[in-house]
């Protein structure tokens, strides 16, 4: 545990959690307008979502 970083940065979900990420992503693409935001190298770093879509498991609540 001494070599573990105290601020964990998770970027990938596996198993059932990964399935809900895929379901939410596909629902957003089907029911809303999704526009990738790219950096200067052309890599997608974020997404701008216009419209509403059904959220199946990964609901991010703004505090």
Walk me through this protein's architecture.
There is one protein chain. With 63 residues, the chain is of the alpha+beta class. It has a domain at 16-50. It has one helix spanning 16-31; strands spanning 33-38, 44-50. The chain has a two-stranded antiparallel sheet with strand order 1-2. A hairpin with a 5-residue loop joins strand 1 (33-38) and strand 2.
Number of separate helices: 1
What ranges have pLDDT less than 50 throughout 5 or more consecutive residues? none
> What structural class do the secondary elements suggest?
alpha+beta
> Would you tell me the overall average pLDDT?
77
Percent helix, as a range, is 25-40%
Order of helices and strands: HEE
Percent range for β-strand residues: 15-25%
**Which strand order do you get reading across the main beta sheet?**
1-2
Tally of strands = 2
Main pleated sheet: 2 strands, antiparallel
Shape: flat
N-to-C span: 31 Å
Q: What Rg is obtained from the alpha carbons, in whole angstroms?
A: 15 Å
Organism: Photobacterium damsela subsp. piscicida (Pasteurella piscicida)
GO cellular component, one term: cytosol
GO molecular function: formate C-acetyltransferase activity
InterPro entries: Auton_GlycylRad_Cofactor, PFL_dom
Briefly summarize what is shown.
This protein is α+β, with helices and mostly antiparallel strands and 63 residues long.
List keywords for this structure.
63 residues, alpha+beta, 21% strand, formate C-acetyltransferase activity, Auton_GlycylRad_Cofactor, PFL_dom, 25% helix, two-stranded antiparallel sheet, 1 helix, 2 strands
